[in-house]
Amino acid sequence: MADIHPVDPQFAARARYDKARYQQLYQQSLDDPEGFWGQQAQRLDWFVKPTRIKDVSYALEDFRIKWFEDGVLNVSVNCLDRQLAQRGDKTALLFEPDSPDTPARHVTYAQLHEKVCKLANALRALGVAKGDRVTIYLPMIVEAAVAMLACARIGAVHTVVFGGFAPNSIADRVSDSGSKLIITADEGLRGGKKVPLKANVDAALKLPGTNSVETVLVVRHTGGAVAMQAPRDRWYHDVVDSQPAQCEPERMNAEDPLFILYTSGSTGKPKGVLHTTAGYLLYASLTHEAIFDLREDDVYWCTADVGWVTGHSYIVYGPLANGATSLMFEGVPNYPSVSRFWEVIDKHQVTIFYTAPTAIRALMREGDGPVKATSRASLRLLGSVGEPINPEAWRWYYEVVGDARCPIVDTWWQTETGGILISPLPGAVDLKPGAATKPFFGVQPALVDADGQILEGAAEGNLVILDAWPGQMRSVYGDHQRFIDTYFRTYPGTYFTGDGCRRDADGDYWITGRVDDVINVSGHRIGTAEVESALVSHPKVAEAAVVGFPHEIKGQGIYAYVTLIADEPASEELHKELISWVRKEIGPIAAPDHLQWAPGLPKTRSGKIMRRILRKIAENAPEQLGDTSTLADPSVVASLVDQRKVR
Ligand code: PRX
């Protein structure tokens, strides 16, 4: 029997949306998108209100996505200036440092406004103008949010690079975006360990293609020693502190770019997902308010990093546009102990907690004790994001963390979507462990089979979205054709998500995972092609093939098959060396969990690697290999299966 948790009547009584209201508004959003979104546009402050609401065509020959296109506004004004009258003294960002012994900091809306204006003035003084790109490579500190908002204030396009990425990955992103300025820190601090951020930037800027960078602004965070290269490198405080506390915001068109965020696809290098101004902000703020059932006195904590889209939409832009208190946590869940998350919840009386299944599974493994040692009585709502949550982890989250009191919103979305597309509204939708359940306003999911036929009723297939929503990405930076080809050509007339999905008899959606060559490691997207090209760049590697395999904590792990160049002997040292090579080339998140020597790879006669077979070997399910008769040399399979047993 299906495990269903009906909406809690007590929760529903106070919630923003109950069943009837959700259904009525959802229907309206499909019947009359212009009316619905035109009405919603009033939640933003505009210099010039939009009169044209939606202009969208997914047709390949006549492709366009425009929302609110004659509107003029500024994102930082919406996140800061308009909060000042009512919420100037309210905490906007609540900073919890890596170590619990370092005091937390409350930054009010008035203080945040001042910090943002000062940095925005400094950026202008350094020659950054509307449309210029700025790379942000910072730890989870207040300055990360300040930097994003300061770019938004002057119309510069930010591109945040996750602090765990290695110099090569920074250089790729700087070069693709043509950034003029980088904002970084001396060092990051995570779980008591230092991360050499400035040194990584220095190494990145020695790589080809990074000449566009004129200035590196360095936040003094840990106080660790760093090399400063004049005139390129400037201390943040030297440049920013003396700036005026007011800054005239740039007037931005609704469709002007707001940010670029790089994400992995099934082919090639990570692509620059481009989001624009009004549609993105409106969608981030509305989903944040509705799905987290936001109230004025909430203390809201999303544990993501600002280096990922979740940090953009649900730590910075959505919450601040809603005047919420958003907690920023510098550290990790298991430092100094595995109770840290729950202790922070008690310390700051967190009411809404949003995290990833991988963290839940890792903490679940530590037993109930570290959770039960804390109160968590302040919590009223829990959220999950990044990958499918297995029902066992869902139940533990619900029963142990939430004391069977707090609804869980399992939110499905992507870097490309800008905000949540499928999730329960907690006062309106019954919960099922493992199901993302129902679409948000304006979102029309559909399932298609391999031929693109739309499947009706209870079914399983590829997940597509039939019409646009305002938060949708607008382009791949510098390659608009790649945008159209990647997302709109597979199943013409629809946006293809790259995910597989099941819809049950109640119309609830269950995401089953990626159907392309993207691996979801701890909720982070890694392209198999990226790891393969890192491996092949090692002088001793002739060929590599990478697949995902089920991993108890990470959801999926990375499994690499490596063919060495002729006469190069396989050794334990080389095995280690190749794993740390990938770590250094891309970053620790891309390091293979398993690396298997492969004298040959299973290929079709036309030379295409058959990953389906490699996946089954990695899963240790050789009995499910299926038909191998189309291979150029079927004997390589047997040898790989034998080797797998040895490991
Ligand atoms: O496969 C889906 C999975 O994460 C992918 C998007 O990754 P990214 O762009 O890095 O964004 C992550 C944060 C939004 C999706 O294609 N995914 C994300 N959330 C869920 C999920 N899979 C199942 N359930 C979710 N709630």
From TrEMBL:
Binding of ATP, residues: G386, E387, P388, D410, T411, W412, W413, Q414, T415, D499, R514, R525
Cofactors required: Mg(2+)
CDD domains assigned to the protein according to its UniProt record, in alphabetical order: ACS (cd05966)
Keywords per UniProt: Acetylation, ATP-binding, Ligase, Magnesium, Metal-binding, Nucleotide-binding
Domain Acetyl-coenzyme A synthetase N-terminal residues, every copy: 22-79
Classification via SUPFAM superfamilies: Acetyl-CoA synthetase-like
Domain annotation AMP-binding enzyme C-terminal: ranges: 530-608
Function: Catalyzes the conversion of acetate into acetyl-CoA (AcCoA), an essential intermediate at the junction of anabolic and catabolic pathways. AcsA undergoes a two-step reaction. In the first half reaction, AcsA combines acetate with ATP to form acetyl-adenylate (AcAMP) intermediate. In the second half reaction, it can then transfer the acetyl group from AcAMP to the sulfhydryl group of CoA, forming the product AcCoA.
Annotated HAMAP family: Ac_CoA_synth (MF_01123)
Name of the protein in its database record: Acetyl-coenzyme A synthetase
